[in-house]
Write a sequence for this structure.
């Protein structure tokens, strides 16, 4: 039944509109590999601390991805 439904209403990648594989949920593997990783966890990410300072009690901070409102994936992140 699921395969029949996917035939008429295929799940597509929200970033590039390609049809998703069975193990993909929102973004295809290709789009996930092109996400802009920060690598902040390798160094002292004081910039991240400065962004959230005063908003929440904070000891350490880091970020996995760079964020840009212009990118197709940006609608999945809450700012």
């Amino acid at each position: 039944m699921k395969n029949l439904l996917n035939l008429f209403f295929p799940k597509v990648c929200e970033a590039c509109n390609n049809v998703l594989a069975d193990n993909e949920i929102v973004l295809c593997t290709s789009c996930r590999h092109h996400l802009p990783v920060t690598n902040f966890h390798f160094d002292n990410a004081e910039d991240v601390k400065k962004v959230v300072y005063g908003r929440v009690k904070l000891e350490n901070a880091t970020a996995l991805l760079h964020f840009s409102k212009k990118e197709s994936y940006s609608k999945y992140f809450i700012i």
User: Anything to note?
Assistant: Helices lie at 2-8, 29-33, 46-52.
